[in-house]
Design a protein that fits this description.
Order of helices and strands: HHHHHHHHHEHEHEHEEH
Shape: elongated
Helix content: 55-70%
Number of domains: 2
Strand order of the largest sheet: 2-1-3-4-5
CATH superfamily of the largest domain: Glucose-6-phosphate isomerase like protein, domain 1
CATH topology of the largest domain: Rossmann fold
Radius of gyration: 20 Å
Number of strands: 5
Number of helices: 13
Largest sheet: 5 strands, parallel
Length: 247
């Protein structure tokens, strides 16, 4: 795994300051590969000492070693691009590389058996429901709802915390519930999910690994903790699910 993969994987264990540095680097690979420690600290909004500690925390000897590994990662990713893509502005190439790395990581972390189980349950469930709260998660859930509808599967999306417990209380073992959360789940969402579990509904969690909701679910399709990465990851999962349902 190269330095970019290490940074993405480390987002689940980094401190708040380290996560801030990692997120900035992942979105600005070309800049970071040539920036001084002071320039990087200013742009990332942390101290130079934090940058030094961060470099060591990801296995680099110092900031020079970090820059070297980032430059090598940029060079490898540039070699994957065709001539037209290679001519794009550096910031756009960084974005493309980051998306590619996110999608690759999502494929690696997605169990094919779990995707097949979800496919089977979507086809056999008497009703399909989805719980999501917050602007980001509701937008992702709405996307999932539209994609499933295009292949003939109706998903009832609940984004009202007051209705979640009421809906959960009506579920049974022939219902499927998807719970989608890219951030921390509040007490209402956790309570409604737990009630659905008591009602013996089949629950699939679309959350980061080790999320509170994943522990209540029958199965987990993991999403990245980073909100932007989660958006691309869900798009990929929807495409994979569509392929499985249409097969």
């Amino acid at each position: 795994m190269d330095i970019v993969g290490q940074l993405q994987e480390g987002m689940t264990r980094f401190s708040a300051q380290e996560s801030r540095v990692a997120a900035f680097i992942l979105q600005n690979l070309s800049f970071t590969a040539s920036a001084s420690i002071d320039e990087l600290a200013v742009r990332a909004g942390v101290s130079a000492a934090t940058i030094t500690r961060f470099a060591r925390s990801v296995g680099c000897e110092d900031i020079r070693d970090l820059r070297k590994q980032l430059a090598q990662a940029c060079e490898r990713r540039t070699s994957w691009l065709n001539e037209e893509s290679a001519a794009l502005p550096a910031a756009w190439r960084d974005k493309l590389s980051l998306i590619s790395a996110n999608l690759e990581q999502q494929l690696v972390s997605t169990p094919e058996s779990t995707l097949q189980k979800l496919r089977t349950r979507l086809q056999s469930a008497r009703a399909v429901h989805c719980f999501a709260l917050g602007a980001q998660d509701i937008a992702l859930a709405t996307l999932l709802q539209h994609q499933l509808l295009s292949i003939g599967i109706v998903m009832n999306l609940c984004q009202d915390s007051a209705l979640m417990r009421m809906i959960a209380s009506t579920l049974s073992d022939d219902h499927l519930l998807l719970v989608l959360a890219t951030g921390e789940a509040d007490a209402i969402l956790q309570g409604a999910t737990l009630l659905a579990r008591v009602q013996e509904a089949t629950i699939f969690a679309l959350t980061p690994a080790n999320h509170a909701l994943s522990n209540m679910a029958s199965a987990l399709l993991p999403l990245p903790e980073n909100a932007q990465a989660a958006r691309y990851a869900l798009l990929l999962l929807v495409d994979l699910l569509n392929d499985a349902l249409l097969a």
